[in-house]
Predict the structure.
Amino acid sequence: MYSPVALTLLSVLSSAASVQAIVAWTVNCGVLSIQRSDPIVNPGGPSGHVHAISGGTAFQRLMPGADTTINAKQTTCDKFTDRSNYWAPQLYHQKNGMFELVPYTGVNSYYKNYTCSYNPNAKYCPTPTDARAFPPGLRMLAGDPLRRTYDASIQSNQAILWETGNTGEKPGFPTGPLADRIQANIRFPSCWDGVNIDSPDHKSHVAYPDPAKGDTAGGMCPESHPVALISIGAEFGFSTQQAGLTGQSASTLVLSNGDTTGYGAHADFIQGWQNSEALENSFANCNGIGSACAWNSFGTPDGTMGTKKDLVPEVAPPVEEEIGLNGPIAKLPGNNPVYTPGMTYSTPAATGSLVPVSSGAAAPSAASSSHAAGAVSSAGGSSTAIIKTLPPTTLQTVASSSGTASSSIIKTLPPTTLVTSAKVIKTGAPTTLQTKAAASPSTAPALGNGHNHNDDDDDDACAPKF
């Protein structure tokens, strides 16, 4: 939801857009797959919980390097050259002691030119901002699957919202009756450290804008992450109408990670745009909706506007268990427990699924960055240890001066052994991809929050509904 100041600023920007360019357009993506996979957090094996996935058809459990997504044969998205992948936890509802899927309908993502690079001599972002396209191979996640509380002062909490009907986007599952559709609105970080395209927790290499000069939707980047990127506000939709839940309470809803609060929603992104230069210039080339936005038809074989579609992955997902695609199931895949107030968790490195530690201690705090398998969360003083030997890890470093790859070095490291003890959260060593780019600070607006809408139709490119 936009603040009054943000709405005023957007009005000014939109007026300018009618003459020069627009500051936001959308990528509407159909359904690719529902499966227990997460190539960022659990590469090569089953993920801790089931995910709903959209984007490029190259999605699979192991996606090393920067080219796997880009080389996808097709995409479920209406922007033909976007072979990126977007995924979030699948939504279920409980009925007669069983779990049923709430049908996933795809993701609509707002691509926004709201963030600017760090500039110690400027108070606000320039118009237009200097947000750049994603570096090759960038992967990141937003949110924390272990979070069960909300702290309005923490940006990573502010970035995870839910919406149904015309009630506006709010933290946590809705408290009123459900409309025909519910969506998880996830804002990804839009500030980059300028070097790494992944990090051990898949979060530390990116950040949200400085809260003193913006918010999770846009603004000036902090000094620690000085490089501004195009910001993504993704809306993962689920049809409560098809699930027979219209007008009913949200109290039966549960995410695939066992979360009954909605606070543990999260999302992952792997960059797969095939033409970074065109992406970076897309805002300047878009002057309205439909044919007025050249980006709508960019790269399509016949030059017409693209459309979203439902497809299947090029690599069929492994099946370890029933996940609800063939009807109700007796338990959440991965044996994830259904959350009850006071429950705390640990996540065994072998599976990444949640295991209750106790039901009497306080719930995990928002500060627990425990999206990675192998993390341990302990509310007490007991001693716990997990030892896991990881396979050899391949690192790819891509040298760059402008955000595009120019050379690469591949190095294979020996196996790594991790020991994680109580009260210490440590993640495994995933494939680390690094891109070095020059960070050139520029002048720069503290922009407002997200938007406020909910519908089943595709959102018009270049025409966000506020």
Notes: The two ends are 8 Å apart (CA to CA). Residues 1-19, 358-456, 461-466 have pLDDT under 50 and may be disordered.
